Amino acid sequence: MTVLLLHPPQAKPAEPPAGIPLLAGTLRENGVSCAVCDLNLEGLYYLLSLDSQAEDTWSKRAFKNRHQQLQNLQSTKTYTNQDKYKRAVADLNRVIENRGKESGISLSLANYQDTEHSPLKSVDLLQCGADFENNLFFPHFSTRLHALITKHNPHYIGLSLNYLSQAQTTFAIAGFIKKEFPSISIILGGGLVTTWMQNPNWVNPFDRLFDHMVCGPGEHALLEIIGIENSGKRCPPDYRDLRDSAYLAPGWILPYATSIGCFWRKCSFCPETSEKNPYIPVKAETVLSEIHDLIKRNSPSMVHFLDNAISPAVLKSLTRQPLNVPWYGFVRFTSQLTDPDFCKQLRDSGCVMLKLGLESGSQKVLDQMRKGIDLQLVRKALLSLHQAGIRTYVYLLFGTPAETHVEAQQTLRFVADHHTQITFLNLAIFNLPTCSAQTKELEIRNFYEGDLSIYTDFIHPHGWGRKEIRRFLDSEFKREPVIHSIMQNDPLIFTSNHAPFFCKP
Ligand code: SF4
Question: Whose Cα sits closest to atom 3 in ligand 1?
């Protein structure tokens, strides 16, 4: 019995995917043989190997320099020079973008969208499955899958679908397998599939293409599907198949999740709350033992913690058993981070950057969104992190129901007042999850036309709509000189995936 696990294009190719190595670890620990293939990274190299037809000067230069630019993105030196970095990303993206244009596809290093099909409509995705030969990656994945299937003779093929940008190619791959290898069972799982299936109105439109669909963590579900007795025992991820892959980063990144879900799970705008996802933490001592072992086996140059929020218990354990490898991840603003000594210990444990959801500089808005943070505490935490030398990637959310222009201006002021302690900024406009309890309190409009939409549009109770917010962001927020300067730090396309490499170890 063999299982083949695939990570389809298109997703940012900075680090290995986390899902399929976790499945591989569980399968192998239970005596099931498996093979793992990152078709996303392979697809990128395939596109870069094709000839270019673009004639403009930039495209010709970008094509000529593409191998050099790949090397540049894999060199730490490039991350000391913003201009050189931006040129490397922009040039590679140009080559990829041109490939897409030649076939009428909106393509980038982070996106794949053929203009005739929407990833939000099941009927369109099924069409992508039927017309798999039209997919841009078809020449690569068809050849590669023939070779992998001949070599491993799998009984099952698992596809991991986490982002909308992967949806069209995932369905094309499934359509190809179904046609060419009808005896192989296809299993679909991943973050996006979980979100679809958690919608109370979910009715599976894909049962003729996929033999099984998995909602939530896939490790034990997969064992059940293939008929292996499931002890429920935790198994660490196994990255051996992807250890030598050349990702677009200056060193190999080890992704690792210390939990699934969120220990807070109260923020009114967040799908973790509306989808009522359970919080499943890995014990802090297990985390430390697994991660030290994974570092020994894989010699990463960076550890990326994937949690929605690393728990205070795990942070504490990391200070007691430093990783000796730089690391970063998402945390909540908690009192722990207001302690300058604790932040120094975190820094000594290898922490180079923390991602933090501030969302708003208005306490009223924070309280109404049940964010559970106090701006006084945020002030102290930002200062302690800054003094410890930990860089911050701060996330802001505009347009929540309680916000008006006045509160958005308070956010502007808060960020400007703390600009020396904020290294990177992520700005987002609020999307209302279709399952959110707030849909009952707000006037709803259809946002995306599609049965797979995970967000819905609403009429803002104070008239603070997307148009007004965009105008505010462009004409006020980003024009504030100190904020403008922070925005310039954000790595092009790769954003937080490359940001820690700009932070001194
Ligand atoms: S802390 Fe983050 S992940 Fe948790 S509920 Fe709030 S926004 Fe969602």
Answer: 308
